């Protein structure tokens, strides 16, 4: 199946963003306050972000709050939640009605339709005009659900590509470097991992996998990877299926089971929420999502050479457009100020780099060519850059490719559109069943995808529970909506 090619507006928006930056030369260092906690007359926003809490987080946020207090009368209470815990944590927070203002929107479409996020169209016009001019329209279009916008996507690559990041030194020593450069599938990895384990018998994780591990499989997951509803990207693109009834998915699980039994996946993987930082050389290969400059960034962070082999061409799906979104809580008492902050974050070069790269001359130094070099203290402050907004405002590290913007354009020109791009299901009438099904999948997903349990036995139990929970009703409703949407596209 050949999907339509997507063009990119990134060069245009990059030029545009450079003309509307606000406050780039003023760093707010002349504030009369001594600390963020002493700032008076400001609005404090509670901001939940995905990522490992950082040792220097408070130090950086003190500088951030001086600046945002001066610019827009706002301070931030940034609450980082670790990768493996974030989705569940935010589900609890949104379900309980706990107050907050801004969050990294996990399961964006699902939570938006459940009413967790505020509709932003009017606020974008009134408090986010510069942001709207900066962002690639493809992102706003892709994040619009039934005519409503519930979040601000990060301005970055429009396609998604998953693949294998690996330790090049280990690959060379094990004699598998050329093999790794051509390894696309799990099956391709199997003989490679056998050699790596033989060469490094004490290596904890020949393949890094924890409770959140989910390998690339050729499906578009309509409601996210935590639910079983998919459209095959290779084959019949008109039919919604339960992925756990598909033969290729079963084969993938069988492969992972062999990996676990052979010691390629460590024994506690099903309950492991450790992000397995690249700087710790206790793994050989791991699944990663690629963006231009990623290999250089990984290598810089790890302090050794990291290689990368893609598993597929860049693919534009709803999740690649909405996989990194900032939303405002539907219960926020300060939605205007929250939008003002998102507007500033996405258009102000100084603020974007302060939150992302840290404090100049503390976490990095600036070179004559305007690139930056990490200091030793950079280890105390590492943020998920792709999740923080407009990546085109970020400074180039001295390890980044000099043609980073051109690489983004080339990457996006190669992206193909999923057949479901733009389709968002209305789950109102099946919300109870979906909640139950989600809980069931969460129970089985980690044990199955780490190979920790017998595939046939647990896959059978999973599908039996899904049937009892009403999966047939849900699939019929989704198929009906998808059929209608496809007819409208024609």
Q: How does this model look, in words?
A:
The strands form six sheets. This protein has a five-stranded mixed sheet with strand order 2-1-3-15-6. Strands 8-12-7-13 form a four-stranded mixed sheet. Helix 17 runs antiparallel to helix 18. The chain is built from 19 helices and 18 strands. Strand 4 (144-145) and strand 5 form a beta hairpin. By secondary structure, it is α/β, with parallel strands linked by helices. Helices cover 41% and strands 15% of the residues.
Compact summary:
This protein is α/β, with parallel strands linked by helices and 490 residues long. It has 19 helices and 18 strands. 41% of the residues lie in helices and 15% in strands.
Got a strand count? 18
Oligomer: single chain
Structural class designation? alpha/beta
Q: What's the number of helices?
A: 19
Q: Could you give the distance between the termini?
A: 17 Å
Quick check: average pLDDT? 90
Keywords:
19 helices, 490 residues, globular, disordered N terminus, alpha/beta
Describe the SSE topology:
Blueprint: H1 10-19, E1 43-50, H2 57-72, E2 74-81, H3 83-96, E3 102-104, H4 108-113, H5 121-127, H6 129-134, H7 137-142, E4 144-145, E5 148-149, E6 152-153, E7 161-167, H8 168-173, H9 177-180, H10 186-199, E8 205-207, E9 219-221, E10 229-232, E11 240-242, H11 247-261, E12 283-290, H12 294-302, E13 306-310, E14 315-316, H13 318-322, E15 325-328, H14 335-347, H15 349-357, E16 364-366, E17 372-374, H16 404-413, E18 416-417, H17 431-449, H18 455-468, H19 471-489
Parallel strand pairs: 1-2, 1-3, 8-12, 14-18
Antiparallel strand pairs: 3-15, 4-5, 6-15, 7-12, 7-13, 9-10, 10-11, 16-17
Helix pairs in contact: 17-18
């Amino acid at each position: 199946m050949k999907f339509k090619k997507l063009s990119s507006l990134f060069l245009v928006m990059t030029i545009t963003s450079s003309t509307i930056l606000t406050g780039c030369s003023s760093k707010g260092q002349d504030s009369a306050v001594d600390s963020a906690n002493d700032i008076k007359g400001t609005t404090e926003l509670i901001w939940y972000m995905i990522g490992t809490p950082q040792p220097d987080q408070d130090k950086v946020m003190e500088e951030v709050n001086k600046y945002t207090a001066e610019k827009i009368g706002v301070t931030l209470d940034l609450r980082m939640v670790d990768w493996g815990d974030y989705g569940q944590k935010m589900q609890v927070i949104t379900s309980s009605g706990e107050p907050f203002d801004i969050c990294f929107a996990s399961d964006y479409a699902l939570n938006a339709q459940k009413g967790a996020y505020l509709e932003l169209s009017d606020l974008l016009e009134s408090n986010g005009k510069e942001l709207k001019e900066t962002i690639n329209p493809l992102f706003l279009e892709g994040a619009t659900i039934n005519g409503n916008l519930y979040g601000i996507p990060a301005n970055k690559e429009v396609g998604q590509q998953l693949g294998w990041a690996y330790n090049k030194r280990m690959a060379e020593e094990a004699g598998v470097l050329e093999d790794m450069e051509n390894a696309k599938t799990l099956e391709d990895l199997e003989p490679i991992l056998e050699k790596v384990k033989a060469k490094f018998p004490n290596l904890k994780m020949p393949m890094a996998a924890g409770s959140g591990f989910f390998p690339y499989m050729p499906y578009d997951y309509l409601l996210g990877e935590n639910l079983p509803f998919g459209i095959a990207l290779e084959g019949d693109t008109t039919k919604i299926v339960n992925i756990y009834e598909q033969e290729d998915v079963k084969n993938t699980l069988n492969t992972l089971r062999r990996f676990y039994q052979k010691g390629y996946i460590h024994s506690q993987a099903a309950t492991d929420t450790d992000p397995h930082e690249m700087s710790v050389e206790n793994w050989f290969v791991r699944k990663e999502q690629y963006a231009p400059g990623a290999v250089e960034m990984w290598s810089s962070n790890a302090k050794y050479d990291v290689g990368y082999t893609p598993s597929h061409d860049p693919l534009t799906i709803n999740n690649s457009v909405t996989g990194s979104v900032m939303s405002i809580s539907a219960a926020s008492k300060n939605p205007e100020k929250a939008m003002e902050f998102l507007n500033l974050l996405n258009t102000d070069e100084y603020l974007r780099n302060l939150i992302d790269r840290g404090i100049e001359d503390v976490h990095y130094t600036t070179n004559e060519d305007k690139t930056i070099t990490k200091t030793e203290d950079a280890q105390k402050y590492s943020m998920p850059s792709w999740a923080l907004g407009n990546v085109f405002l970020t400074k180039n590290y001295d390890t980044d490719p000099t043609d980073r913007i051109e690489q983004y354009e080339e990457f996006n020109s190669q992206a193909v559109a999923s057949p479901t791009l733009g389709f968002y299901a209305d789950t109102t009438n099946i919300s109870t069943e979906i909640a139950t099904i989600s809980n069931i999948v969460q129970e089985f997903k980690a044990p199955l995808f780490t190979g920790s349990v017998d595939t046939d036995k647990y896959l059978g139990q999973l599908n039996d529970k899904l049937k009892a929970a009403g999966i047939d009703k849900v699939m019929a409703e989704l198929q009906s909506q998808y059929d209608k949407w496809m007819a409208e596209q024609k």
